[in-house]
Amino acid sequence: MPTTTIAALAADPSPLARAITVDGVRLTVRGLLPGDEAALVAFLGGLSATSRRFWHGDTGHAAAAADWIEAIGRYDKLRLVAVDGDGLAGVVDLSLSLPEGHEITRYAEHGIRLDEERTARWGPCVADAWQGRGLADALIAPAWEAVRLLGRDVVVLFGGVHEDNVRARRFYRRHGFTEVGAVDMWRRL
């Protein structure tokens, strides 16, 4: 049973907020806020072509940011951000839906039935300047706390992981994820 909802966290995001220190720099992890639109556009626009390919693709940054801001507290999405000064150093995309034809179908092909009431999809992205500095590692605990607050205890990768993204695969395995087929990985919390 969830201890809170996405709408409740949008109304009062304080349960998500925490300070972290990464590579000697103090950052704040918190829920995405309506005032973050310009920082989100800059974050998305600053990703290298490789980072965009491995995360959300090459959609228009301003339109994507506007959609994310408009979705705060609505639908099935919760986004956490790591704030470095005035900019965003990382984003964690959490989703509580498991649409047919995507994760449910892919996992079922490997004999795993995902429980829609217990599973969250997770997609982290770290700004290129922060990659390799420990930020992705530091985002794990706040993300898992958010997932638990929402009553979930299973995490799957949002859309899977590219077969050629060796670095990400190592990262996920190091954090307890198990590979399922060519692109999927999951973890029980």
In short:
Residues 27-189 form the N-acetyltransferase domain. The protein has helices spanning 6-11, 37-46, 49-54, 61-70, 103-108, 135-149, 166-174; strands spanning 18-22, 25-31, 77-84, 87-95, 119-126, 154-157, 178-180, 184-188. Helix 2 packs across helix 4.
Could you name the key traits of this structure?
Aminopeptidase, alpha+beta, eight-stranded mixed beta sheet
Notes on the structure:
Pfam families: Acetyltransf_7 (PF13508). This is Acetyltransferase (GNAT) family protein. Residues 27-189 form the N-acetyltransferase domain. Keywords: Acyltransferase, Transferase. With 189 residues, this protein is of the alpha+beta class. It is 33% helix and 26% strand. It contains 7 helices and 8 strands, in the order αββαααββαβαβαββ. It has an 8-stranded mixed sheet with strand order 1-2-3-4-5-6-8-7, with helices on both faces. Helix 2 crosses helix 4 (61-70). It is globular, with a radius of gyration of 16 Å.
